[in-house]
Amino acid sequence: MSLVINQSPVERLTAHFEQELPSLYGDAALRREAMATLREKGIPDRKWEDYKYINPAALFKQPHVAQARVGLEIKPEAVTLMVLQPGSALAVVVNGELREDLSKLDRLPAGVRVKSIADAVVSDAVAREYYNAVNGTSADPFVLWNNALNKGGVFIHVDKNVQSEVGIHVLHISTNEVAAVSHPRNLFVIERDAQIEIVESFETLGPVKTFTNALTEVVVHQNAIVDHYRMQLEGQVGHQMNTVNAVTQKGSNYRTYTFTLDGAWVRNNLNIRFSESHAEAHLFGLTMLNGQRVADHHTIVDHAIPNCMSNELYKGVLDDKSLGVFNGKIFVRRDAQKTNAYQTNRNILLSDDAQINTKPQLEIYADDVKCSHGTSTGRMDEDALFYLRARGIGEAAARKLLVRAFAEEVVTNVPNDAIRAYVENRLDHFFN
Amino acid sequence: MEEKNQILEEHIASEYKYGFVSDIDTEFAPKGLNEEIVKFISQKKNEPEWLLEYRLKAFRHWQTMTEPKHWPHLHYNSVDFQDISYYAAPKKKATVNSFDEVDPELLKTFEKLGISLEEQKRLVGMESKIAVDAVIDSVSVKTTFKEVLAEKGIVFCSFSEAVQEHPELVKKYMGSVVPFTDNFYAALNAAVFSDGSFCYIPKGVRCPMELSTYFRINSAGTGQFERTLIIADEGAYVSYLEGCTAPQRDENQLHAAVVEIVAHRDAEVKYSTVQNWYPGDKDGKGGIYNFVTKRGICLEANSKISWTQVETGSAITWKYPSVILKGDNSIGEFYSVAVTNNMQQADTGTKMIHLGKNTRSTIISKGISAGKSDNSYRGLVRIAKGAKNARNFSQCDSLLMGDQCGAHTFPYIEIHDKTGVVEHEATTSKIGEDQIFYCNQRGIDTEKAIGLIVNGYCREVLDQLPMEFAVEAKKLLSVSLEGSVG
Amino acid sequence: MQASVEGKEILRGLNLEVKPGEVHAIMGPNGSGKSTLASVLAGREDYEVTGGEVLFNGKDLLDLSPEDRAREGLFLAFQYPIEIPGVSNINFLKTAINEIREYRDMDPIEPKEFLALVKEKQKLVELDGKLANRSVNEGFSGGEKKRNEIFQMAMLEPKLCILDETDSGLDIDALRIVANGVNQLRSPERSFIVVTHYQRLLDYIVPDFVHVLYQGKIVKSGPKELALELEEKGYDWIKAETSVAI
Question: Which terminus of chain A is less hemmed in, N or C, by CB atoms within 10 Å?
């Protein structure tokens, strides 16, 4: 007879943290504080309004193996296959740590710096200034977890007036032989009047369940323009929590594109706060789900300041037994007069077993504002399908065409040709 | 500007019209809540054993529950449930056989409310007849037109009477739509409810008149916990009206009602509410806490339930009249105008649960926030798996008046069947100064202009109300919003 | 009279006398203060009247609220009529008429009489009966909106009508209908101030006097021929003349 005493998930988390702490970079006090708050708040489950439809508790329960030590070797050829855009600079992050040996950063113009955040918080005043500053007092358990245990990631800094022709591709790879967790941590600071395009993509290598808890802080200074893509391409075993906390200043334009095209379980928390007037934010999202995949998009656009504009368009195509969630919050704070905030969420269900839960939420405390949201869910237009078939188009091709047409409204907003072509290609292969 | 301020001040100072207290001889239960009180209430009502058991079970379950304070967008001090008297009844003679025996003070109360209990007047003077069940504090005091209705087999009486005379119906349906396990206030109500209205429309009968209940909280330090049960049997139709008022008091008073509606095959129930509980004064002192569970079930095919509500009162409103669309081809509707002014808070909306095939639901919600109030729409549309070809359309509009108030929408949409089609739209707007000026230029003063614009904004909902009720509702809207645009 | 908006002076000393039955046209280049004049007369709060008086039937209009000015008999046909969703034209007009009647100590209009009046006046501007039941100006075309303004004018029977750029955005057919409606409303008791940039409206609504407004002042007044002269020569010669005068 043997006696097994199980530690509670929180105890295991704590033990793992204590074991890892000596080897972690940066401010140990900050990490301890995050861990303490996480212990106090507890592990989220379905009773948390923000995690109502997807139970994240299991993610905290898997073994917390120090990942770098168990990662698979990555060959440069494998990386080449995952490059989305040959012309751009490449930063490869493996299990949450920047690998300069696999990256190609020499293409960047002067004034654009990409480096390991673990180094930057020591050597770079800008990184020190903004690290964890955008997160503020966020008590989200995943933010806290990342704060406690991240081993690094990418710091991108674009100097003022630098409008980079060359984009940056940040390729996140999770590699595993045993189940494990990684916490990539990014900080993007774009100075005034600068412009940059950042494409993040997420891939998994290896046979075992992975969990990536990515956290990115974005600071967009006056009049800067940022195109921020997130390509979520993790396969059948990839689980991902992806938090972006962004703050934007006067006259800036922050555009995000979230393509959730693969992965077993994906949760996105995209939080944008206007800290100064006359700024714009655009949020585009396209989700394609099949199998038993789960994707949950939570977005918050916080109009704390007058005269800002936000526009959000998220679309979802759900097949098989997939589960989709959309929760879009728009806050218009007192005094945020002349706010324009628009939000649209549309979904189609292709199968009897697919599910979608949407909650477009407006909280408005100012009166001179224009806000609207609309959401609709339905199945594929059977009449249109019949019409196409009557014109001799096979059913499969006709379905493909209609899904393409549905997605087009999002795809057409993508300024990057390579990404657009990539997404269209994935769309065409969605049914195969 | 100056003139508008003046108007504003005048109306902020204006009194809640129904804020009188009637001097009626009343019988109270001691304050506090325990099993003894539950038994006391049951005894007072001379209830059968099974009902007492039901109450006790509900009470024990309630003790295990916690007040739902986290998810609603409401901020208030918790209710001290031991500081409330759970039973207050006007003392009455053993039986009230004729109109003359009703307490004259009570009659005056209802006259002040504009409700005539004197059926003769209704019979002669008006085109449409309304049968009234009047509930004061917790007890049903007078039901009119009973005999006329009885000829058609319609039962319309107080809940207590139904327990005595139609126990089989009460036993069969009570708690079948809102079980006491449903939520905190439903459990509380099931334990301590003292009366309410009961209505049964037999097979194939169209109720020839509007049925109406007027609720009034009168006594200080009491809660009102009434229970309404409406059953429309196969092919039956009834239109049901509910009106509420309460006197002005400094302390908050609790109202936790339960309304259950059952619609059988081909039946239709239309339930309209004009809620005008005392909202508290301009600083938020006093007012009714209104925590109400209202739910209907379209039990069988082709049935229809529609809720229409005009909510202008209460300090706190927590209310989600819902429809469970179980029968195939059944229809659920929710039309709502919720007005909040001064310090009022409302978290209200609906749930449409689609279970049957080809079920349809419509939600039209119009929120109006003024003063320093907070107004939230919270709604759920669920298309369950197997609810083939279900349809929902929701329109949630918010109108803001002034920059100190809040308007929020929290729609939950859960679709588990691919044949479901759900559309949700929401807009937020304010009354434009240019609109008011345009009206002024045509000779219409600012107050009237606001009334005109607000009534226009709410038209889709007001159109759903029976005529006399609509007139009352329009007046109420204007009164509630007087002086709120500057 | 002087008036300013947000501290900027727009009207700077303007004298005008309009007698019963007269039609005065006010013309002027863009930004001369034409629309300000119309708005100030109607009582729009965006404008601060910094001096002067406007006597109307012996009362100073400037002391009155916008609705009382309307009740005294002033009517402004808006350049951009406002949409009021959910409020039907009929309900809107009935409310307005009864408010005005109440001000004049008259009983509310009888429903029958009101409907007869609506029927009669609709014909004036060839307004479709269906429009009367639609929400005020909501979803109306530009021409329909302007015709609706004249229809309201006919219903409210004002003493002084101000037409603020009523011709803007109208094609020639709509212009003719609107002008025709106005002409039928001309009477010895009713006066008009027609504010316009172009002379073409004055081909249809022939004024008794034409005034040229420039930089917030009336710089030239004359008979209806003045309008033709303006049409021919443009506003530049006025500007030139004015600068010489200054």
Answer: N
**Own/partner pairs for A403-406, CB < 8 Å, 24+ apart?**
A403/A317, A403/A348, A403/A350, A403/A427, A403/A430, A403/A431, A404/A428, A406/A315, A406/A317, A406/A346, A406/A348
Residues of C within an 8 Å Cβ radius of B? 42-45, 65-67, 69-71, 75-76, 78, 81-88, 91-93, 95-97, 99-100, 103, 135, 152, 156
Q: Which residues make Cβ contacts (< 8 Å) with residue A148, sequence separation at least 6?
A: A17, A31, A32, A34, A35, A38
**Is residue C104 one of the residues assigned to a domain?**
yes
Contact assignment for A374 to B419 by CB distance below 8 Å: no
Mean pLDDT value across chain A: 89
Burial class of residue C107 (count of CB atoms within 10 Å of its CB; 0-12, 13-18, 19+):
exposed
Kindly give, in sequence order, each residue whose CB lies less than 8 Å from that of residue B128, ignoring residues fewer than 6 positions away: B209, B210, B466, B467, B468
Question: Which residue, chain included where needed, has tokens 């009352």?
Answer: B472
ipTM above 0.90, yes or no: no
Q: Is residue A42 part of a domain?
A: yes
A344 in B contact zone (CB under 8 Å): no
Identify the domain boundary among A244, A276, A308: A276
Instruction: Tell me, yes or no, whether A362 lies in a domain.
Output: no
- Residue B399 in contact with residue B370, Cβ under 8 Å? no
- Could you tell me if A301 lies within 8 Å of chain B, comparing CB atoms? no
Between CA B178 and CA B175 the distance in angstroms is 5
Looking at the domain assignment, is residue A356 inside a domain? no
Residue-wise pLDDT for A328-362, tens only, equals 999 999 889 889 899 999 999 999 899 999 998 88
CATH number of domain containing C130: 3.40.50.300
Contacts of A336 in chain B (CB under 8 A): none
Interface with chain B: mutation pick from A362, A383, A399, highest number of B CBs within 10 Å: A362
C71 contacts B443? CB cut-off 8 A: yes
- The answer on A390 and A258 residing in a single domain is no
Look at C85 and B456 and tell me if their CB atoms are within 8 Å: yes
Domain extent, residue A111, equals 9-276
Q: Which of A276, A299, A318 is the C-terminal boundary of a domain?
A: A276
**What is the number of domains present in chain C?**
1
Residue A387 backbone phi and psi in degrees, to 5: -60, -45
CB within 8 Å of B470: residues ≥ 6 apart: B462, B463
Number of residues that this document lists for chain C: 246
Residue A55 lies in a domain: yes
Check whether residue A197 and residue A51 sit in a common domain: yes
Quote the tokens at residue B446: 């600012």
Q: Which residue of C has its CA nearest to B447?
A: C67
Average pLDDT for residues A389-408, to the nearest whole number? 82
Q: How far apart are the CA of A19 and the nearest CA of chain B, in angstroms?
A: 37
What tens digit of pLDDT does each residue of A148-159 get?
Answer: 999 999 999 999
Q: Distance (Å) from the C-alpha of residue C71 to the closest C-alpha of chain B?
A: 5
Contact pairs from chain B to chain C, CB under 8 Å: 81
